[in-house]
Amino acid sequence: MADSAASATATPSAQGGGHSGSGPAAARRDRARTAVLWQALRTVLDASGPRDVLDVGGGTGGFAVPIAELGHRVTVVDPSPDALAALERRAAEAGVPKDALRAVQGDLGGLLEHVEPASADLVLCHGVLEMADDPAAGLAVVADVLRPGGVVSLLAANRSAAVVARALGGHFAEARRALADPAGRFGAQDPLAARFDEEQLTRLLNEAGLTVQSVHGVRVFTDLVPGALVDADPQRASDLAELEAAVADRPEFRAVAGRLHLLARKSAS
């Protein structure tokens, strides 16, 4: 969750990270959603030899399995035993050696119960901060797990995008609530505990002793485009992925991206 094509937007063929179903159409949607993430991650993963990678909340292995296929050592920490079982099946089907991928039941708050301090070169923290009781404390633990010079890949829900999405769905009162709420929530039925903007995420990372290296908008258009348009034509899915890559680092588009992705590095000293 391995295709090593030279294209900057190439993603591992088995990659995912989403749960939009199965089959070729779903795979195309997943590639469009995650192409920007893979482009950023490859700058870290391809920099030298095999890395020790920790995927917090890695679920069924949409990222962990392809990273292991690339030759890296991966540990997935996730609270769901069902997701971890699916991860192990996925890894076995992909032919990943058992010593290349480890599945551990746990969560962000208890990370140091399962992982040694200063043991990871790269930590994936994707879609986790939105559910954390204390995001600042969670990122402090992530920083503790990183080796000097290590990198965290942080993906979090963008509060501005929630306002746009609720409004486009005709839920105008909920859009107003998401706009006004300090946590970016649109109501009691909101499944997320918090959403963030770029300034908030940068501040949280800095407070954890991590320096932001890059910021990208993820799913600027993908969540807004009707699925039928992408499912019906493979070329459209490819064009959409290229469009996402083209606008990912432009601030005016990041502001409304469904997710914000930041790479941040721990000091080497």
Lay out the secondary structure.
Elements (H helix, E strand, L loop, with lengths): L23 H22 L6 E5 L7 H6 L3 E6 L2 H14 L6 E5 L14 E7 L8 H11 E12 L1 H10 L3 H9 L17 H10 L2 E9 L8 H5 L2 H14 L3 H4 L4 E8 L3
Parallel strand pairs: 1-2, 1-4, 2-3, 4-5
Antiparallel strand pairs: 5-7, 6-7
Q: Report strand %.
A: 15-25%
Shape: globular
Number of strands: 7
What's the number of structural domains? 1
Overall pLDDT metric:
90
What is the fourth-level CATH superfamily?
Vaccinia Virus protein VP39
**Which structural class do the helices and strands define?**
alpha/beta
Radius of gyration: 18 Å
Corresponding CATH architecture: 3-Layer(aba) Sandwich
Query: In order across it, which strands form the biggest sheet?
Result: 3-2-1-4-5-7-6
Any idea of the CATH topology? Rossmann fold
Q: H/E element string? A: HEHEHEEHEHHHEHHHE
Describe the largest sheet: 7 strands, mixed
- Specify the oligomeric state: single chain
User: At the first level of CATH, what is the class?
Assistant: Alpha Beta
Q: List the total number of helices.
A: 10
Which bin fits the share of residues in helices? 25-40%
Low-confidence stretches: 1-11, 13-20
What is the first-to-last residue Cα distance?
A: 32 Å
